[in-house]
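no rush on this but wanted to send it before i forget. what follows is a protein written twice so to speak, once as letters and once as structure tokens for the fold. mainly i need to know what kind of three dimensional shape the backbone takes. thanks a lot i owe you, the record is right below.
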Amino acid sequence: MADSISLSARLASAGRCASRPGLALLLVVATLAIHWSRSPIQDLHDFDQPDYLGIAYDLRHSDRFTDGYLNASPGPDGTRPPGMRFAPLYPAVLAVAAMFDPAFDRAMSCVVEQDADHLCPRSASLVRSVQFALLCGVYLLLWWIAAAASGSRRVGWIALALGLFAAPALMGGVNYMMTENLTLFLVTAATAAALKATANARVHARQGAWFALAGALLGLAALTRPAFEYLFLASAATGLTLALLQSPRRQAFIRALCFVAGGCAVMLPWIVRNDLVLSRPALSFGYASEVLVQRIAFDAMSWTEFGQSFVCWLPDGSGMGTLLWGVGACARFQLEQRADTFYWIGNTTLLHSTVAAAGGLDHHLSYLVHTYIIPDLAWHVMVSIPLALRGVSINHYWGFVLTFVCAAMTWRALRTGDRRILIVTLPGWFMLAFHAACAVNQVRYNLMLVVPFALAGGLALDKAWIRWKRLPSLGKSPRAA
């Protein structure tokens, strides 16, 4: 009798455990579907979409990776030459999708052949469905990561609910033919794999396998957006350094090498291809220096403008700046095609003059670093601070407020040595600093912060709930309490 009761209890517990992922999936899909139904479908020529569509088109029609129709002209044979300006993974996804979605194939052809004509159809149902599924996967991983990092299923649910408030800011990655959702999924999955590795500390073979998977996923993220190559390098360097300080050193070093091997196995084939075809053993070439010169243009701001930038880059746009200093006070800080904006100067006069001074694009990046950044490094770092704050405003004040909650959580984890929390938070902080120092930092560059922000908010709300429950009930006397 006791055995049957015990068996029934175990089956009931197993049923509850099995239902939790299903309930989380239902909540995620329902919430995102509501937001998706309200999201407009934009033209395929907006933002960077033509770049990726152009490379995918060439991959479909000439079986080679190019720089796309916006950056390269056809040769004598009518096809564009090989290129490596952009990473290959996302254009490859678009090319495969075009094979199975004829309507999208026609829309992509229209964009390329008619130079991003506004009259082209917007059909891309397969790609958008895949990107919706990737976003659902991100939220399910967020739910698991928050529970695993905190050790509390309740924190996992709170973090998921809190993270879903940022859904409007993430839905743009569903409808646009851009890299945001694929990159976000890969980086979040890499975080989950690294976190899973720490849970298998006693099984060294499994731990190494999870670290290898984390490295491979981060390598795939770098093949989607090359900036994540630097996150991989920073993570590898940190892992190898910590391995030398841990005991037993040999096992820790092997685990770090598994991470490095996983990432290199993914990235090296593309790097070798670039070396063989273009004589450049690198992940990409040509785009990084143009992004950096846009960022350097902001270093020309005065001390007065430096102070104004903290206000002008608040999540409310130019509202507070206009209230304090009048209409147009924040115009120079915006990403607009106006001759007096820092962004436009970086895209035009500063870009052209520095390319000429460097002797061409081949030496442009090195010239910018040695001529503009190193001699005035302190000011460059200072200007990066308001740019970093600009990049955290995910879903406006949602991200801005949670930035400080997450910073406090990270500092506490550093003091206590909580590896699980640090695995979740440090990569996002690193990329925020990287984008603020090397690019015109935008919110869409920092969407990976949604996971640590939601975790931090979940922990804070859970702690507040526990403290509230411990308070004496209203109406009770102190003696009764």
